[in-house]
Design a protein that fits this description.
Blueprint (H helix, E strand, L loop, with lengths): L1 H7 L16 H19 L3 E5 L3 H12 L3 E5 L11 H12 L2 E4 L2 H9 L7 E3 L3 H9 L30 H4 L4
Parallel strand pairs: 1-2, 2-3, 3-4
Helix pairs in contact: 2-3, 3-4
């Protein structure tokens, strides 16, 4: 599936691909840790940068910490305060292992302060997902031409787009 993103976003294929695939959280995380360790030994990075809250983020963070490689986390400090969410575990552990934390919001920075992370490690940089969208818009004129049935006649700024993808948010709707 990742090949589609490289093609659609017109970016180069990666030099390495861990090819983890699906599986339980433990299977994905452990396989990613083994792959990361192999890559970190091969390339000997001075810094590992991880993004978000997925299992590969946790895997790379733990592996970098254990190998004493400096770690930076993009999208750090986000919290749902719902311990039943696997992503919440990934976020908290990754943040506390990170040397440099790039937060998407002032709230995220405040969360890290409250958790005892020193201010010199925290850097508010804004939402990289929005930045990515803004960056892609000039290269995607077709996005301005999208016509969706039922949306014609809406005034600019008078509607909202909502995506629902987390099972806990949509299971009662089904």
């Amino acid at each position: 599936m990742s090949g589609v993103f490289f093609k659609d976003l017109n970016i180069n294929q990666p030099d390495e691909h861990l090819d983890i695939g699906s599986g339980t959280h433990a299977e994905q995380t452990s396989a990613a840790m083994v792959g990361c360790e192999r890559m970190f030994k091969k390339y000997e990075p001075d810094l590992v940068v991880v993004v978000g809250d997925v299992n590969s983020t946790l895997a790379a963070a733990v592996t970098a910490a254990k190998m004493k490689i400096k770690l930076a986390h993009v999208e750090s400090g986000l919290r749902s305060y719902d311990r039943s969410m696997p992503e919440e575990h990934n976020r908290v552990v990754t943040d506390h292992l990170s040397d440099i934390l790039f937060t998407p919001s002032e709230d995220a920075s405040s969360n890290l302060h409250r958790e005892g992370i020193s201010k010199h490690r925290i850097h508010f940089v804004g939402n990289v997902m929005i930045d990515s969208l803004i960056n892609q818009l000039p290269h995607r004129p077709q996005l301005k031409q999208i016509k969706i049935a039922g949306l014609s006649g809406l005034k600019n700024g008078h509607y909202a787009l909502l995506t629902l993808h987390r099972p806990s948010n949509v299971e009662i709707l089904v």
